[in-house]
Amino acid sequence: xxxxxxxxxxxxxxxxxxxxxxxxxxxxxxxxxxxxxxxxxxxxxxxxxxxxxxxxxxxxxxxxxxxxxxxxxxxxxxxxxxxxxxxxxxxxxxxxxxxxxxxxxxxxxxxxxxxxxxxxxxxxxxxxxxxxxxxxxxxxxxxxxxxxxxxxxxxxxxxxxxxxxxxxxxxxxxxxxxxxxxxxxxxxxxxxxxxxxxxxxxxxxxxxxxxxxxxxxxxxxxxxxxxxxxxxxxxxxxxxxxxxxxxxxxxxxxxxxxxxxxxxxxxxxxxxxxxxxxxxxxxxxxxxxxxxxxxxxxxxxxxxxxxxxxxxxxxxxxxxxxxxxxxxxxxxxxxxxxxxxxxxxxxxxxxxxxxxxxxxxxxxxxxxxxxxxxxxxxxxxxxxxxxxxxxxxxxxxxxxxxxxxxxxxxxxxxxxxxxxxxxxxxxxxxxxxxxxxxxxxxxxxxxxxxxxxxxxxxxxxxxxxxxxxxxxxxxxxxxxxxxxxxxxxxxxxxxxxxxxxxxxxxxxxxxxxxxxxxxxxxx
Length: 523
Ligand code: NOJ
Hints:
With about 525 residues, the chain is α/β, with parallel strands linked by helices.
């Protein structure tokens, strides 16, 4: 079946770091509008906006205090509407990141809930006299004592991110209202944050510990009732027509991911097994796409970057800033089967940010890990090292637009350090250099758009031989051959008959990181 999202190349745009229009050092909607032509020129047809709702931002917006308003750092509701309109005029769809697992502790529901045990909002959250052993994913207990009402409340993430009680039908109604509000504004779909984490059955048994002594989240995630809750979200969203739902499912297990990928649930789910690969290993990439083809029903997603993981340019070999390898990775993302998600800045090969001082670390994960290390008696230096390892700031530094002051991102003081390499690594230079990574992305995205087979085609002859990944994509009588060579040299057998060369050079030997894309039946 045809759906717009199967033909879309998405771009995750991290709100505070894309482009600042008013000099306050933070990205905003007006700033994004200024850059929509840039995205259109790159070929992007879908934007994933990270949270832009009102928020105290202890976790950069993943702690919403009002689902119905735009955070003033990012502009006004009118700015949002103008942005959406301008994006749509350029043929770009927009999906909103929505956090329904928890709210900020500053949300009026929670402010009410903690007033008294019989407050009508009390049951929007989860309370307990005696906590169990469930741990927060951000470290420590998932339970926080509330002085006022003498009970603990439940938070799977930070203390300021309070879990909603999805066994309460009122919470489900509120969620539908929120979804409808943004769809009425014209939003084309949602990225649902940690959606398999929602607490639907209340608090049950203690979690067991695994062999490493770490908590096995057996009872606090993937709870009974979760599919029903997501089914409700799906029903509401799909009543608006062809809207799109992508879920962040925290699990390494494809059998778990598979449960959530269903026409009545989520259109696609993120698979972090591929997305967060630590090292560059073509065999591992291949194994993942093969597994997804065999074990994941429907369309997969293909991505190698997000605001939660280090930049892939750094993971896959920063020392040489291996552009040819990055180009091969881009080809992989844009030719394999699935919905591609690019992360802002990856199109120019942006690298990890390194903080020199504690002040330069914003992310709650980085700061918490610093504190833990200090409590354990670690020196400032050691703690800073750990904080740098754990912080997700690495991939959140401002977009590097040009080599001028503050990389052209802001005229003010940037909210987070700008990567020092912006003078030699920026959009302006990349656009001007014919053989740049940026121009390679542009070429591949264009190819994907022209050749429908790359969006809809099934795999044939998916193979890995000595560092060479090769496959065919077949759709409605058309056949495209793709060879991505990640090794020194590889011999390939060119297909018989007549074909057109879509990218690369048709020869029997490919050298390291070379690619070749052919189409059957035309010269
Ligand atoms: C997943 C988001 O991607 C991450 O950035 C956030 O910290 C957690 N969910 C909590 O909302």
